[in-house]
Amino acid sequence: MNDDTTSIEFRDNTAPLGETMRRLAGSISGEKITVRELLALVGEQGLLLALMFLTLPFLIPVSIPGVSTVFGLVAILIAIGITLNRVPWLPDRLLDRPLDAVKLAKAIESGADKFGRIDKISHPRLTRLTENAAMNRMAGLGLLLGAVLLIFPLGLVPFSNTLPAWSMLLLAAGLLQRDGVLILLGYLFLLATIVYFVALAVGVLTGAQWVVNFFN
Fold first, then answer.
1. What share of the chain in percent tops pLDDT 70?
2. Does 35 or 176 have the greater pLDDT score?
3. Which of 33, 165, 169, 193 is 20 to 30 A (C-alpha) from 72?
4. What pLDDT score was predicted for residue 139?
5. pLDDT exceeds 70 at position 7
6. Residue 35 within any structural domain of the chain
């Protein structure tokens, strides 16, 4: 097991998402690269980009049951790392696992084209929400809460995965781009998610009580 805790920090935060990902793809060389080496290359930006990748399957009203639990657990580990300003703990067996560097670079290039669209609407603004550790930690806690809500196995319930996924996507993009507007939108989606889940719970309890009363 790996007991080291490596500090992570934002680097060149105002770079466009597409440019950041293309630069990462260009920095990958050789036939193989380990997870440990990849983490050393990407820093916290890579963790945020990974979170954004994890949200992609859930940006539609109904998601695939079961997938949200697995992806949500991975997202929780990443969000904890961002909140604590540490690369999340992973076992040596996983950190030293070799990956196909060529395929990985191509996948990142493909993601650069998709996430590059965010660059058209995002730019540094309301930077007070992103320029200090306390605000970044608060956003990290928002990511963590969104990931926790994402793991609920409610994939067939409309918007149960979509709302937390959008909150995570916006928060992660806002941190990367130093865009306070995106972060505020992320918090808004997170609040909407909480309200929606509470409404679902109230609806279920009310329905159950009605059924009990009907048969009594």
1. 78
2. 176
3. 33
4. 92
5. no
6. yes
Q: Where are the alpha helices (DSSP H) in 28-161?
A: 35-55, 67-83, 92-95, 101-115, 133-150
Q: Which of 142, 153, 145, 143 is nearest to 69 (CA)?
A: 153
CB-CB neighbours of 27 under 10 Å: 13
How far apart are alpha carbons 127 and 204 in whole angstroms? 41
pLDDT for res 207: 86
Best CA proximity match to 172, nearest among 42, 73, 47:
47
| 11 located within any domain | no
29 Cβ partners below 8 Å, 6+ apart?
101
Q: Which domain holds residue 180?
A: 17-215
Beta carbons within 8 Å of 105's beta carbon, 6+ residues apart: 25, 26, 28
Lookup: tokens for 56: 């992609």
Residue 8 lies in a domain: no
- In angstroms, the CA 182 to CA 173 distance is 7
The separation between CA 171 and the C-alpha centre of its own chain, rounded to angstroms, equals: 8
Q: How large is the C-alpha radius of gyration of the chain?
A: 19
Q: What is the pTM of this model?
A: 0.73
What is the number of domains present in the chain? 1
pLDDT at 127 over 90: no
> Is residue 100 a part of any domain in this protein?
yes
Place 155 in a pLDDT band, splitting at 50, 70 and 90: low
pLDDT-based confidence at residue 170 (cuts at 50, 70, 90): very high
Residue 140 CB coordination number (10 Å): 25
